[in-house]
């Protein structure tokens, strides 16, 4: 959609929008859990927590689940039968933030290049996304530095401006969004003025660009030292896509299930191949590979960063490694 139109909206209309969407979709939204916020299936608008900064895990977990069956197979009467398991459920992300919505665009590019991932896109094409903008982040956010503080084209079906504004507006980003606007009977309005609070975490573009020449910098040895290779940063990341595929056979080995699980390039055995060879056995190599993948390789390949600045990796790291500060120090090394 090229011509963005805004319509008058209010917080009081959110329950009505929720109910309209719930007629056709299973809704996933932010809820309270143990003093934190998580995304989960919600059946009632009252379950939602709309004032939040980030969830523990990103929307990715519903598009590429941590453990996912891909196909069932069996050998019977000298024939092999394979049945692919393609999910058909229609899900709607309700009130996710721009950074998480933009992360879906990164995933789309990765999962559609050369070979389209049927399992990912069977969910993605049945999906509806309602983005709720936020006026400010916290001490971990750096979405502004990577251009992910505003929703990118194609990242949403409906975009709602921050509810703190005096005049709230909603804009459709697809035909599905336009249909919902018509059903709500909203009136067109002028684009609202949004003044966001600047991120406290700032990652200068010049420092990101400097990484390309710093692959062999001794600074990486210093920066990687605190890392435990636990993989927490990759598990909470909204754009990490590493997975492993396994076959589970049933006795007497004539049937089984193929499934995939989340993996991590931070793990020492991620690049292990036959013969026991590990291509990135050194922890430093694994540590810096993640940075180059996010900020150099993906940028060169798709024209966007592989990081949306959500701040999850900084907040959840058990050693409190700050990705932003690491890049700054390496850039200056």
Automatic annotation (TrEMBL):
SUPFAM superfamilies: alpha-helical ferredoxin. Pfam families: Fer4_22. It comes from the Archaea. Residues 218-248 form the 4Fe-4S ferredoxin-type domain. One of its GO terms (molecular function) is iron-sulfur cluster binding. InterPro entries: 4Fe4S_Fe-S-bd, 4Fe4S_Fe_S_CS, Helical_ferredxn. This is 4Fe-4S ferredoxin-type domain-containing protein. It comes from Thermoproteota archaeon. The lineage of its organism: Archaea, Thermoproteota.
